[in-house]
Every structure is written in C-alpha cells, then in structure tokens.
Amino acid sequence: MSAATETQAGPSSRIVDLLDVERVRRDFPILHRTVRENRKLVYLDNAATTQKPQQVIDRIVRYYTEENSNVHRGVHYLSEVATAAYENARTTVKRFIGARDEKEIVFTRGTTEAINLVAQTWGRKNVGAGDEVLITAIEHHSNIVPWQMLCDEKGARLRVAPVNDAGEVLIDEFQKLLTSRTKLVAFGHASNALGTINPIRKMITLAHAASAVVLIDGAQGVPHLRVDVRELDCDFYAFSSHKIYGPTGVGVLYGKEAILDAMPPWQGGGDMILSVSFEKTTYNALPYKFEAGTPNIAGVIGMATAIDYMDSIGIERIAAHEQNLLHYATKRLLEIDGLRIIGTAAEKACVISFVLEGVHPHDIGTILDEQGIAIRTGHHCAQPLMMRFNVPATGRASFAMYNTRDEADALVAGLEKVIEVFR
Ligand code: 7TS
Question: Which of 42, 135, 189, 320 could pair with 8 as two cysteines, CB 3.0-4.6 Å apart?
Fold first, then answer.
C-alpha cells in the first residue's frame, strides 16, 4: 500500500495532512543505494542514527566550500559569515524547542556530552554526601553512568524508579522516591530500547514539588515529538543532532538561564573566557562559558538545516506517519510465531524491540543484514533494562519519517527467513 493512501490517525493523534513518504525519500540519497548482494536497503536503525537529507549534506558542503572560518574571533569577512551562520543556528534551535533566549542553548558534542556537562558542573556544585539523584530503570547508559560517577565522587546515592512489565515507569514508585534528599531527577523523554514515551510533564511537576532539578534526556524525544521546554518547565533538556537528520558529533544542552548562570564552567580554554591572566581568569557570558575551544561549526550549521528540514515537513505530520507505521508494524510482527515484543507501553515512539524464540538476536541481525535490512541487535546501551526484562539482548527495529509499510513487510518477510534457517 502506498503511504499516501494510508490513514494517518494514530490513537492519540489528531488527523493531519498526509506525509508524502515517496517525496521525503527522494531527499535522502543513501536510501537509494543497494547493500550486500545488490539488496535494496531497508534502514530500520534510526534510533541509533538517522540518515541525512540532501539539504543537510549540501549545507555542510557549502559551508566548507564558501564559508569556512573560525567563529567569534576574526574581524575578516569569512569569520563574520561563519559566526553569523553559527549564531543563527542557535536561534533556530531556540525556536525549535521553545526556549526563552539563545543564552539557554549550549552546543555540545551530543546528548552524552550535555549530560556529562550537567553532572560535572551543576552536579559537583550541588550534590553532596547523603544526597540523592533519581533516574528510571529504562535509561540509556549515558543517563546512568555520569550520575553514578558523580554519586561515587560525592558519597551521594543513585536511586532508580522501577518500570512495569510493559516498560512504563511506575509513577507511584517514582513519587515515593522523591524526598528532601533528591537533588536531581534525570529521565528520558522516550526510551531508545523500548520506545516508551514517559509522561514527562507529570514527572517534572512531581520532581519540582520535591524541589529537585530536572534533566530530560531528549535524544529520542525531539525526533518524534513536539518539544516546548517552557511549557514542560524542565530545567535541562539534552539532545543529539544525528538523531534528527543532522550530522554526528554535535548536540544541544538547553538549560534555564538562571541555573546555567549559577553553574561553574566545565572545560577551560579559548572562547569561554573574557580575560585571562596567570593570577585570574574571568569567564565569558552564557552560553559561551560552556563552549570552550573551536566548536563543530559545520555540524552546528548542518543541525540547523536539519531542523529547518523537519519543520518543512512538520513534526505533527512526522509523528502521525510514525505512529501509523508503529501500529502497522506491531500488528504484522505479532503474526510471527514465537516473536515477543519487549516494551508494550500505551504511549510509544516507533521503536519495536523483540525476541524470537530459539534464535539469538545477533543471528537475527546477521540474517536480516544479508537481505539488506538494517536493525540493531544487542543491549542498546541499556544493560540494566535488559536485566529487568530477563533478556540478554533484543532485536530492535526503529523507524523514521522516510520508512514505509513496505519496509515493515520486508522486515516480517526477513524474520520468516530467519525462522526457516533456525527451525
Ligand atoms: N540517550 C538516549 C535515550 C539515546 O538513545 C542515546 C543514543 C543517547 C542518550 C546518547 O546519544 P549520543 O548521541 O550522545 O550518543 N542511543 C543510541 C541507540 O539507541 N543506538 O545507538 C545510539
């Protein structure tokens, strides 16, 4: 069935104009290459990283062809052009997530670096012996390990809110773990391993009622959901460019201005200072205080182009298309004998983790790959979560705006071949 004829009304989505998936696909050159033995590529590993549209690729080429220069330094023409493009990108990001001011947008290497920045600056200043940091059982390692490192250093305690068998955070338990000792609460907007979309607005309100500061790991949120940090009232929100059709090696830390302002800098170096002498250094204003050294200028500019691209399609349209695919692919996968979906939350992003009776997930991935189908297999950087569900690993198909029902069908056909080989 062509996507243009699909109904786009997911369970919780209002009816929106259809996304023209064939037109979107034309923008992504890599989707038209073949892999392995002349196989059509079926790319279902979007939670790991998304493919890039020609618009983003062209913008990066144009930057290096016509604009390359360092930012915030030169009085010369190219430096002014590069600085303007870099700072315009900050405005694009500000608008994209509904921040109040450009000062609240810090460019980082990605979600991981953004979370580490908060742990190493806000955390080291504000978390002490006996304090607690609260996370949930479905976090990615990058929203576990930085807090563990902080807690180890400070003699603080890491608490973990449990999930039910569907992979939904138990809100009562989450609330019970919020006490006067809780200094910071960090959780994902959506889970990369299960797809669960957390009720983050409610969780933020509960955490604030306990006077805790809240960080949202938005790596799997911004690709699929409209984000408005002011409406959410989160204190920090972190995400990566490469999961929203932009380049790798760049991402964003949003922080409320007053909180960022009170935080000590992290890395020292060029651009983050106002003046340096051997006796004393004064630091630059926000957000530059947190951007030491030459940044990933081309990456930041490419990320802004990716955001413009998403905006041109419309996040509501993308979300409706993906929800439609989620319901279709879930239904089709459940027709397979012996397949069990891990992660059955009522609210999910288009991520489907599964196990197949009698077959190791690694073998599933390898046999699908021979057919040109790319999924991820393993623990998805969420080992504690795998333990919670008593599986060593899963296969994970994760969809993006350019995926189709035909590709979901190809996955099902591929899995049937896997079963032929193993049974
Ligand atoms: N948080 C979540 C929820 C993620 O899914 C990821 C990456 C990260 C943080 C880290 O982002 P990074 O850009 O700094 O690496 N998730 C995945 C994945 O699911 N497969 O590969 C990377």
Answer: 320
